[in-house]
Design a protein that fits this description.
By secondary structure, this protein is mostly helical. The chain has one domain. Helix 2 packs parallel to helix 7, helix 3 runs parallel beside helix 6 and helix 4 crosses helix 7. The longest helix has 36 residues. It starts with a helix and ends in a 23-residue tail after the last helix.
Protein backbone atom coordinates (compact mmCIF):
# COMPACT_ATOMS: atom_id res chain seq x y z
CA UNK A 1 0.00 0.00 0.00
CA UNK A 2 2.85 2.35 0.79
CA UNK A 3 4.27 1.68 -2.67
CA UNK A 4 0.98 2.79 -4.24
CA UNK A 5 0.99 6.00 -2.21
CA UNK A 6 4.60 6.72 -3.11
CA UNK A 7 4.01 6.05 -6.82
CA UNK A 8 1.01 8.36 -7.16
CA UNK A 9 2.55 10.95 -4.84
CA UNK A 10 5.36 11.42 -7.36
CA UNK A 11 3.59 10.53 -10.63
CA UNK A 12 4.43 12.86 -13.50
CA UNK A 13 1.96 14.34 -16.01
CA UNK A 14 3.66 12.27 -18.71
CA UNK A 15 3.10 9.03 -16.80
CA UNK A 16 -0.55 9.92 -16.19
CA UNK A 17 -0.95 10.57 -19.93
CA UNK A 18 0.67 7.23 -20.71
CA UNK A 19 -1.81 5.48 -18.39
CA UNK A 20 -4.68 7.07 -20.31
CA UNK A 21 -3.21 6.24 -23.72
CA UNK A 22 -2.10 2.76 -22.64
CA UNK A 23 -5.62 1.79 -21.63
CA UNK A 24 -7.05 2.94 -24.94
CA UNK A 25 -4.44 1.00 -26.91
CA UNK A 26 -4.88 -2.17 -24.83
CA UNK A 27 -8.66 -2.28 -25.13
CA UNK A 28 -8.50 -1.19 -28.79
CA UNK A 29 -6.38 -4.29 -29.49
CA UNK A 30 -8.66 -6.57 -27.45
CA UNK A 31 -11.68 -5.28 -29.38
CA UNK A 32 -10.10 -6.67 -32.52
CA UNK A 33 -9.39 -10.05 -30.92
CA UNK A 34 -12.57 -10.75 -28.91
CA UNK A 35 -15.27 -8.29 -30.03
CA UNK A 36 -18.66 -8.30 -28.34
CA UNK A 37 -20.41 -7.00 -31.45
CA UNK A 38 -19.10 -7.00 -35.00
CA UNK A 39 -19.69 -3.29 -35.43
CA UNK A 40 -19.67 -2.08 -39.03
CA UNK A 41 -18.28 1.41 -38.89
CA UNK A 42 -15.28 3.50 -39.84
CA UNK A 43 -13.36 2.80 -36.68
CA UNK A 44 -10.58 5.34 -37.21
CA UNK A 45 -13.01 8.15 -38.07
CA UNK A 46 -15.13 7.24 -35.06
CA UNK A 47 -12.04 7.23 -32.85
CA UNK A 48 -10.97 10.62 -34.16
CA UNK A 49 -14.35 12.10 -33.28
CA UNK A 50 -14.28 10.68 -29.76
CA UNK A 51 -10.63 11.60 -29.22
CA UNK A 52 -11.53 15.22 -29.94
CA UNK A 53 -13.84 15.07 -26.93
CA UNK A 54 -11.05 13.38 -24.97
CA UNK A 55 -8.90 16.43 -25.72
CA UNK A 56 -11.61 18.86 -24.61
CA UNK A 57 -12.03 16.85 -21.40
CA UNK A 58 -8.29 17.14 -20.72
CA UNK A 59 -8.47 20.91 -21.28
CA UNK A 60 -11.38 21.28 -18.84
CA UNK A 61 -9.66 19.09 -16.24
CA UNK A 62 -6.51 21.16 -16.60
CA UNK A 63 -8.54 24.31 -15.95
CA UNK A 64 -9.89 22.77 -12.72
CA UNK A 65 -6.51 21.33 -11.67
CA UNK A 66 -5.48 24.43 -9.69
CA UNK A 67 -8.68 24.34 -7.61
CA UNK A 68 -8.41 20.60 -7.00
CA UNK A 69 -4.77 20.85 -5.91
CA UNK A 70 -5.56 23.74 -3.54
CA UNK A 71 -8.64 21.99 -2.12
CA UNK A 72 -6.70 18.79 -1.50
CA UNK A 73 -3.81 20.59 0.21
CA UNK A 74 -6.23 22.54 2.42
CA UNK A 75 -8.21 19.45 3.39
CA UNK A 76 -5.08 17.50 4.34
CA UNK A 77 -3.65 20.44 6.28
CA UNK A 78 -6.90 20.95 8.19
CA UNK A 79 -7.66 17.22 8.44
CA UNK A 80 -11.05 18.08 6.94
CA UNK A 81 -13.23 15.43 5.34
CA UNK A 82 -14.87 12.07 5.98
CA UNK A 83 -11.57 10.21 5.85
CA UNK A 84 -10.37 11.98 9.00
CA UNK A 85 -13.38 11.29 11.23
CA UNK A 86 -11.65 8.23 12.65
CA UNK A 87 -8.16 6.79 12.42
CA UNK A 88 -8.07 4.26 9.58
CA UNK A 89 -5.50 1.72 8.45
CA UNK A 90 -3.97 2.72 5.12
CA UNK A 91 -5.74 0.02 3.06
CA UNK A 92 -9.15 1.10 4.40
CA UNK A 93 -8.25 4.80 4.02
CA UNK A 94 -7.56 4.12 0.32
CA UNK A 95 -10.59 1.91 -0.29
CA UNK A 96 -13.09 4.24 1.39
CA UNK A 97 -11.56 7.27 -0.29
CA UNK A 98 -11.87 5.70 -3.72
CA UNK A 99 -15.41 4.53 -3.05
CA UNK A 100 -16.64 7.94 -1.86
CA UNK A 101 -14.94 9.73 -4.75
CA UNK A 102 -16.50 7.24 -7.16
CA UNK A 103 -19.92 7.82 -5.58
CA UNK A 104 -19.75 11.61 -5.89
CA UNK A 105 -17.74 12.29 -9.04
CA UNK A 106 -19.01 9.35 -11.10
CA UNK A 107 -22.31 7.90 -9.88
CA UNK A 108 -24.01 11.02 -8.48
CA UNK A 109 -23.16 13.39 -11.30
CA UNK A 110 -24.09 10.73 -13.84
CA UNK A 111 -27.43 10.11 -12.12
CA UNK A 112 -28.16 13.83 -11.81
CA UNK A 113 -27.51 14.37 -15.52
CA UNK A 114 -30.21 11.83 -16.27
CA UNK A 115 -32.69 13.65 -14.00
CA UNK A 116 -32.12 17.32 -14.84
CA UNK A 117 -33.29 18.25 -18.32
CA UNK A 118 -30.73 20.93 -19.22
CA UNK A 119 -27.88 18.72 -17.97
CA UNK A 120 -29.27 15.72 -19.84
CA UNK A 121 -29.02 17.71 -23.07
CA UNK A 122 -25.25 17.90 -22.58
CA UNK A 123 -25.00 14.23 -21.56
CA UNK A 124 -26.94 13.25 -24.69
CA UNK A 125 -23.73 13.58 -26.70
CA UNK A 126 -22.34 10.54 -24.89
CA UNK A 127 -25.49 8.52 -25.52
CA UNK A 128 -25.73 9.30 -29.22
CA UNK A 129 -22.83 6.96 -29.99
CA UNK A 130 -24.24 3.99 -31.93
CA UNK A 131 -20.85 2.22 -32.05
CA UNK A 132 -19.87 1.98 -28.39
CA UNK A 133 -16.22 1.05 -27.99
CA UNK A 134 -13.35 2.00 -25.70
CA UNK A 135 -13.07 5.49 -27.25
CA UNK A 136 -16.67 6.20 -26.21
CA UNK A 137 -15.42 6.42 -22.62
CA UNK A 138 -14.37 10.05 -23.11
CA UNK A 139 -17.08 11.14 -25.52
CA UNK A 140 -18.35 13.98 -23.34
CA UNK A 141 -19.47 17.41 -24.44
CA UNK A 142 -17.18 20.11 -22.93
CA UNK A 143 -20.14 21.28 -20.87
CA UNK A 144 -20.51 17.84 -19.31
CA UNK A 145 -16.77 17.75 -18.64
CA UNK A 146 -17.26 20.91 -16.54
CA UNK A 147 -20.01 19.18 -14.52
CA UNK A 148 -17.81 16.16 -13.89
CA UNK A 149 -14.76 18.22 -12.96
CA UNK A 150 -16.87 20.27 -10.52
CA UNK A 151 -18.11 17.10 -8.83
CA UNK A 152 -14.55 15.79 -8.64
CA UNK A 153 -13.66 19.00 -6.79
CA UNK A 154 -16.64 18.41 -4.49
CA UNK A 155 -15.51 14.83 -3.88
CA UNK A 156 -12.03 16.00 -2.90
CA UNK A 157 -13.48 18.40 -0.33
CA UNK A 158 -15.99 15.89 1.08
CA UNK A 159 -13.43 13.11 1.46
CA UNK A 160 -10.40 15.24 2.25
CA UNK A 161 -8.47 13.23 -0.32
CA UNK A 162 -4.73 13.87 -0.50
CA UNK A 163 -3.41 14.63 -3.97
CA UNK A 164 -1.93 11.15 -4.46
CA UNK A 165 -5.40 9.68 -3.90
CA UNK A 166 -6.89 12.10 -6.44
CA UNK A 167 -4.33 10.94 -9.03
CA UNK A 168 -4.98 7.29 -8.14
CA UNK A 169 -8.74 7.77 -8.45
CA UNK A 170 -8.49 9.62 -11.76
CA UNK A 171 -6.22 6.92 -13.22
CA UNK A 172 -8.55 4.13 -12.09
CA UNK A 173 -11.61 6.04 -13.26
CA UNK A 174 -10.18 6.47 -16.77
CA UNK A 175 -9.07 2.83 -16.96
CA UNK A 176 -12.40 1.46 -15.75
CA UNK A 177 -14.36 3.69 -18.13
CA UNK A 178 -12.27 2.46 -21.06
CA UNK A 179 -12.75 -1.11 -19.81
CA UNK A 180 -16.51 -1.05 -19.37
CA UNK A 181 -17.11 0.75 -22.67
CA UNK A 182 -14.78 -1.52 -24.65
CA UNK A 183 -16.39 -3.68 -27.31
CA UNK A 184 -14.98 -6.89 -25.84
CA UNK A 185 -16.71 -10.21 -25.18
CA UNK A 186 -16.52 -11.54 -21.65
CA UNK A 187 -17.71 -15.00 -20.55
CA UNK A 188 -21.17 -14.37 -19.11
CA UNK A 189 -20.45 -16.03 -15.77
CA UNK A 190 -17.23 -14.09 -15.31
CA UNK A 191 -18.95 -10.82 -16.24
CA UNK A 192 -21.81 -11.55 -13.82
CA UNK A 193 -19.37 -12.36 -11.03
CA UNK A 194 -17.38 -9.18 -11.64
CA UNK A 195 -20.56 -7.09 -11.68
CA UNK A 196 -21.08 -7.82 -7.96
CA UNK A 197 -17.95 -5.82 -7.21
CA UNK A 198 -17.05 -3.61 -10.16
CA UNK A 199 -18.81 -2.25 -13.22
CA UNK A 200 -18.30 -4.97 -15.82
CA UNK A 201 -18.49 -4.45 -19.60
CA UNK A 202 -21.90 -6.11 -20.00
CA UNK A 203 -23.29 -4.22 -17.03
CA UNK A 204 -22.44 -0.84 -18.51
CA UNK A 205 -23.50 -1.80 -22.05
CA UNK A 206 -27.08 -2.03 -20.71
CA UNK A 207 -26.89 1.69 -19.93
CA UNK A 208 -26.18 2.40 -23.61
CA UNK A 209 -29.35 0.73 -24.91
CA UNK A 210 -31.18 3.20 -27.12
CA UNK A 211 -34.51 3.33 -25.30
CA UNK A 212 -36.03 3.63 -21.84
CA UNK A 213 -36.04 2.31 -19.22
CA UNK A 214 -32.57 0.75 -19.58
CA UNK A 215 -31.00 4.10 -20.48
CA UNK A 216 -31.65 5.17 -16.89
CA UNK A 217 -29.86 2.28 -15.18
CA UNK A 218 -26.30 1.20 -14.32
CA UNK A 219 -24.76 4.63 -13.74
CA UNK A 220 -21.62 3.39 -11.97
CA UNK A 221 -18.06 3.60 -13.22
CA UNK A 222 -15.77 1.69 -10.86
CA UNK A 223 -17.84 0.16 -8.06
CA UNK A 224 -21.15 -1.55 -8.84
CA UNK A 225 -22.35 -1.28 -5.24
CA UNK A 226 -23.88 2.15 -5.83
CA UNK A 227 -26.31 0.95 -8.49
CA UNK A 228 -27.30 -2.02 -6.33
CA UNK A 229 -27.64 0.11 -3.21
CA UNK A 230 -29.72 2.86 -4.83
CA UNK A 231 -31.90 0.56 -6.93
CA UNK A 232 -30.59 1.58 -10.35
CA UNK A 233 -29.04 -1.78 -11.24
CA UNK A 234 -30.41 -3.62 -14.29
CA UNK A 235 -29.44 -7.00 -15.71
CA UNK A 236 -29.96 -8.15 -19.29
CA UNK A 237 -29.41 -11.87 -19.78
CA UNK A 238 -28.99 -11.71 -23.55
CA UNK A 239 -26.61 -8.85 -24.20
CA UNK A 240 -27.08 -9.34 -27.95
CA UNK A 241 -30.56 -7.79 -27.72
CA UNK A 242 -29.11 -4.37 -26.93
CA UNK A 243 -29.04 -1.61 -29.52
CA UNK A 244 -26.70 1.33 -28.96
CA UNK A 245 -27.46 5.01 -29.36
CA UNK A 246 -30.46 7.08 -28.33
CA UNK A 247 -33.79 7.03 -30.13
CA UNK A 248 -33.90 10.83 -30.43
CA UNK A 249 -30.82 10.98 -32.67
CA UNK A 250 -30.85 7.90 -34.94
CA UNK A 251 -29.39 9.60 -38.01
CA UNK A 252 -25.66 9.37 -38.66
CA UNK A 253 -25.70 12.98 -39.86
CA UNK A 254 -26.61 13.90 -36.26
CA UNK A 255 -24.68 11.47 -34.08
CA UNK A 256 -21.53 11.27 -36.21
CA UNK A 257 -21.04 14.97 -36.95
CA UNK A 258 -18.71 17.02 -34.80
CA UNK A 259 -20.51 20.30 -35.43
CA UNK A 260 -23.91 18.83 -34.63
CA UNK A 261 -22.73 17.07 -31.48
CA UNK A 262 -21.41 20.35 -30.10
CA UNK A 263 -24.77 22.01 -30.85
CA UNK A 264 -27.05 19.32 -29.35
CA UNK A 265 -27.37 20.94 -25.88
CA UNK A 266 -28.59 24.14 -27.52
CA UNK A 267 -31.01 22.62 -30.00
CA UNK A 268 -34.74 22.11 -29.49
CA UNK A 269 -35.28 19.32 -27.00
CA UNK A 270 -36.44 15.90 -28.16
CA UNK A 271 -37.99 13.63 -25.56
CA UNK A 272 -36.93 9.96 -25.73
CA UNK A 273 -39.78 7.51 -26.20
CA UNK A 274 -41.04 6.23 -22.90
CA UNK A 275 -40.82 9.15 -20.52
CA UNK A 276 -37.82 11.36 -19.90
CA UNK A 277 -39.07 14.92 -19.43
CA UNK A 278 -41.96 13.83 -21.66
CA UNK A 279 -43.23 16.66 -23.73
CA UNK A 280 -44.31 16.85 -27.34
CA UNK A 281 -41.32 17.54 -29.50
CA UNK A 282 -40.39 16.85 -33.10
CA UNK A 283 -38.49 13.73 -34.03
CA UNK A 284 -36.08 13.61 -36.97
CA UNK A 285 -37.39 12.52 -40.32
CA UNK A 286 -35.99 9.30 -41.73
Amino acid sequence: MNAIVEFFDTISPLTRSLVLAGGLVLFWILEGIVPLFNLRYRKWRHAGLNLFFTFTTVVVNFAFAFLIVKASAWAVDQQFGLLYLVKLPLWLFILLGLMIMDLISAYWIHYIQHQVKWMWKFHLVHHTDTWVDTTTANRHHPGESVFRAAFTLLAVVVTGAPLWMVFLYQSLSAAFSQFNHANIRFPRRLDTMLSWFIVSPNMHKVHHHNTQPLTDTNYGNIFSIWDRLFGTFAYVKDINTLQYGIDTHPLESEHNSMSNLLKIPFQQYRAPAGSKFSESSPKPEN
